[in-house]
Design a protein that fits this description.
With 707 residues, the protein is mainly β. The protein contains 2 helices and 66 strands. Helix content is 2%, strand content 46%.
Length: 707
């Protein structure tokens, strides 16, 4: 017997990155680390769309599939279960929020619109487009619904024949539509859902179907159910199908996650690898050369075969079933827990795959987990005074003196090894434990001391910040402060109408508290007396239906105070009298929490729950005279070559968007051209070179050396 459920396969990644162009428009951009899970796919002409389990939708418009762009603005959920393209409109189904159509416009930017009118079940499992305006959607318990007006209204198309309402898949078979259901087998319609016929025989009737595919070249349907792998011919016209078992060459006990075809061959993704067979004489051959371990689906696309995975993004091959290469650039669907940054180029990310460190402004990353014994469960990470401090779920705190190359546990005096927050300031490190006890220790010591005096029993600590010689603590019972030299905390809640404080920060003579539901409050640093700032809302917030009053993190840099909320980032330079967008919000997923804000010299970085890091240029914000003129000038006018000197492997970037760039040797001969921020891995003779870039702020150049 063959069991068919979605499980894992095996595949080896061979990186072949030579030259990458990233977006040059001034929007929040994906900054890795890259990877994540693929749940579904849609292809429209030369464009490929991938849905993910938790990270929304990604698009590749390059036929070579070398880079992906997020398409998640407007979605209320990142849990994509189905995609369909009508030839004019892209539809997405979600596991918990219904159906969305990608036809909202804000200037040249596009976003998703929720289209659930008449859709009584929002747990979508499958989609199929019948024409430019007609789409069928399968649900988990509500059966099948239909729209004839591009999703504006839906109505159920279930009848007495169709009595199994947990739909697992829908496909087109010529002009016929065939769907599979949990425990119901297979059903078909020849009139776009107005009526249904039972499309089973004894091999499939009332049996769970997990995967199916239609081959238009042979007019066959191949399906997997709990009893085996079956095929039927004349699938677009025959009303009495005859399913035959086709398992020759397959190992026993195999589990099949997806079926696809390119007309001449069938392809299976299974827990025991990839299998392929000619359609003429079905005999399955294992095709695992170079394959990774967690494949979810295979898509023939032009001359490529694209493999989606559960954790490692997207890979492809030009000649199935041979060598696979990673094409996950821009595909940032990793769970990300924290970020910290430093100086001009240092970016450190704590993800579900461990800690990754970039020393070239997120152009490339290296896994940095030596000695970090709980590296897959890093709750928080902090950088200060050339040191890194990590908080883990199971093994306490870890310290690194060499930018993450090696880590050492520092847990003396900590009674609970589940650490949720860490901070570094003024030669002292701080740790907040899961039971909300707070400890401190000198940077050069691993002996922690509790600093809990004055805090109420049962308080939940959300955040810690520093101003002058004081600490400010955010909790679910309001604000507490203390001086560095004092051992007891004092309550500081005067006129703070919402005590559920999620985040705190300071700038100049002001301190700020973000709350759960009431936006941001501000006070002088002297005698604490809180007043609400203006409403934390911008046009993007309103358009996307997001609530800017639920603040998730706060930070300050170069005259601006920042506040994040689900799907967005705000900034103020006038003590909260007005809030503006902290950079163009497009590309930043609308469904994701923005849990941490951090800065390098010229960029702001934010973490998202399931989409790794996003970053934007600080030059988008207005210059504050006397405060950030130098920073903004650098942001708008600098061109970076990292590293410099290098061996021909380097990264070119500018905070001002690059429209065109050229590289010349010392004699003025053009040796390479590109567009946008670019990674180069080239064989250059040793010597002096010059990179020149045309940006939105004019021409800039930089000398570099190849050694």
């Amino acid at each position: 017997m063959i069991h068919h459920i979605i499980t894992k396969s095996a595949l080896k990644l061979l990186p072949v990155l030579i030259f990458i162009n990233t977006q040059s428009i001034a929007h929040f951009g994906s900054k890795g680390p890259f990877g994540g899970g693929v749940s579904c796919v849609a292809v429209n002409d030369s464009v490929v769309y991938f849905g993910t389990f938790t990270g929304g939708v990604f698009q590749s418009i390059n036929s070579k599939l070398v880079a992906w762009s997020p398409r998640s603005v407007g979605l209320k959920s990142g849990k994509i279960t189905a995609l369909a393209h009508t030839g004019k409109y892209l539809f997405a189904g979600t596991a918990d929020s219904g159906v969305f159509v990608f036809n909202g416009y804000a200037g040249s930017d596009r976003y998703w619109l929720k289209k659930n009118k008449g859709l009584s079940n929002l747990q979508i499992t499958s989609l199929v487009a019948l024409d430019s305006a007609t789409v069928l959607v399968g649900t988990n318990g509500g059966g099948i619904f239909k729209t004839t007006d591009r999703g504006n209204t839906w109505f159920a198309v279930n009848n007495a024949i169709l009595h199994h309402f947990e739909i697992s898949a829908i496909i087109k078979a010529g002009d016929r539509v065939v769907h599979a259901s949990i425990d119901g087998g297979v059903y078909a319609t020849d009139d776009k859902g107005a009526s249904w016929i039972d499309f089973n025989d004894e091999q499939t009737d009332d049996i769970t179907v997990s995967a199916l595919s239609y081959n238009s070249a042979t007019n066959e349907i191949l399906l997997a159910n709990r009893d085996g792998l079956f095929i039927t011919d004349s699938a677009s016209s025959d009303n009495t199908p005859n399913y035959g078992l086709v398992e020759s060459g397959l190992p026993s006990g195999i589990t099949i996650s997806s079926i696809s075809n390119d007309g001449a061959h069938w392809y299976l993704v299974t827990d025991k690898g990839l299998f392929a067979s000619s359609v003429n004489n079905i005999n399955w051959i294992k095709s695992n050369t170079g394959m990774i371990t967690d494949a979810t689906l295979l898509v023939p696309f032009r001359n490529n075969f694209i493999l989606g995975t559960a954790h490692n993004g997207v890979v492809k091959t030009l000649s199935f079933p041979y060598i696979w290469t990673n094409v996950a650039t821009g595909f940032n669907n990793l769970k990300t827990y924290s970020i910290t940054t430093g100086g001009n180029f240092l970016v450190v990310a704590a993800t579900e795959k461990g800690v990754f460190i970039s020393k070239d402004l997120a152009a490339s990353y290296s896994a940095s987990n030596k000695g970090l014994t709980d590296s897959l469960n890093v709750n928080d990470i902090a950088y200060g005074e050339n040191r890194l401090l990590a908080a883990t779920k199971n093994a306490g705190a870890f310290f690194s003196l060499d930018s993450g190359s090696t880590w050492t546990a520092v847990n003396n005096g900590i009674p609970n090894l589940e650490v949720k927050k860490v901070y570094i300031s003024n030669g002292i490190k701080y740790a907040v434990l899961s039971n909300n006890l707070i400890f401190s220790a000198p940077l050069n010591s691993d002996q922690w001391t509790a600093i809990q005096n004055g805090l109420p029993t049962g308080v939940i600590i959300s955040s810690l910040a520093f101003y002058g010689n004081k600490l400010i603590l955010g909790t679910d019972k309001g604000i507490y402060t203390k001086q560095f030299s004092v051992t007891i905390w004092s309550v500081a809640n005067t006129n703070l109408s919402n005590l559920n404080v999620t985040s705190v920060t300071s700038w100049g003579t002001k301190i700020y508290a973000g709350t759960m539901g009431s936006g941001v409050f501000m006070s002088d640093t002297g005698s604490v007396n809180w007043t609400p700032t203006s409403k934390t809302s911008i046009a993007h917030t309103v358009t996307m239906g997001l609530n800017g009053d639920y603040i998730q993190d706060m930070a300050s840099y170069a005259g601006y105070v920042y506040a994040s909320y689900k799907g967005g980032l705000l900034a103020t330079s006038d003590n909260g009298a007005t809030w503006i967008a902290g950079g163009n919000q497009f590309n930043l997923p609308s469904y994701t929490d923005v849990n941490k804000i951090s800065f390098v010299t010229t960029r702001v970085f934010v973490t998202t729950q399931n989409n790794s890091l996003y970053s934007n240029s600080l030059s988008e914000l207005p210059v504050i005279a006397g405060l950030n003129e130098e920073i903004w000038a650098k942001a708008k006018g600098s061109l970076s070559v990292v590293p410099n000197p290098n061996n021909g492997n380097f990264y070119v970037s500018s905070v001002s968007p690059i429209l065109q760039l050229s590289i010349y040797d010392a004699s003025g001969v053009l040796v390479k051209e590109g567009n946008g921020e670019s990674v180069f891995n080239l064989v250059f003779p040793k010597g002096i070179y010059f990179v020149k870039a045309k940006t939105e702020n004019g021409l800039i150049s930089q000398k570099f050396i190849v050694e």
